[in-house]
Structure formats: structure tokens, C-alpha cells
Amino acid sequence: MKARVHVMLKNGVLDPQGEAVRHALGALGFDGVEGVRQGKVIELDLADGTSEAQVKDMCEKLLANTVIESYSVEMI
């Protein structure tokens, strides 16, 4: 069993990496990009019986900084 965790900065939190990507895309001629938010994807290989609630607990304690980041869990 696997879980995929998507972590993104919350709305209103400045995203300097996303802004750098947006600027670079413009420099490459991709003028239609008005904003970029950059996040991360964490894929976990889980032992059988590991619950989504346990994965969310992992996120709350380590995988996401919940002050400035939000996350979603996808069990796959």
C-alpha cells in the first residue's frame, strides 16, 4: 500500500520559488503564466494496515509545516 502526500504553501504565504519559476518561464517566452505555486509530493510505502489517519498524523508531526503549508493525502 502507498500514500501520496501533496504539500503546498497556504494561500497568502509568499512563494519565492514559485515566483522564480514564473519569471524563468516568462524569460523562456511563456508569457501566459500569471502565477506559480510550487509544492512537493511525498510518496510513502506503507505496511498493510496503515491507516489514512496515521498518514495524516505523520503530516501534522513531520511532513508538513501546518503553520504555512496545507496538505492532502491520497491512499493508492
Automatic annotation (TrEMBL):
Part of the phosphoribosylformylglycinamidine synthase complex involved in the purines biosynthetic pathway. Catalyzes the ATP-dependent conversion of formylglycinamide ribonucleotide (FGAR) and glutamine to yield formylglycinamidine ribonucleotide (FGAM) and glutamate. The FGAM synthase complex is composed of three subunits. PurQ produces an ammonia molecule by converting glutamine to glutamate. PurL transfers the ammonia molecule to FGAR to form FGAM in an ATP-dependent manner. It catalyses: N(2)-formyl-N(1)-(5-phospho-beta-D-ribosyl)glycinamide + L-glutamine + ATP + H2O = 2-formamido-N(1)-(5-O-phospho-beta-D-ribosyl)acetamidine + L-glutamate + ADP + phosphate + H(+). Keywords: ATP-binding, Cytoplasm, Ligase, Nucleotide-binding, Purine biosynthesis. It is an enzyme of class 6 (ligase). Part of the FGAM synthase complex composed of 1 PurL, 1 PurQ and 2 PurS subunits. Its EC number is 6.3.5.3. Pathway: Purine metabolism; IMP biosynthesis via de novo pathway; 5-amino-1-(5-phospho-D-ribosyl)imidazole from N(2)-formyl-N(1)-(5-phospho-D-ribosyl)glycinamide: step 1/2. It is found in: Cytoplasm. This is Phosphoribosylformylglycinamidine synthase subunit PurS. One of its GO terms (molecular function) is ATP binding. It comes from the Bacteria. One of its GO terms (cellular component) is cytoplasm.
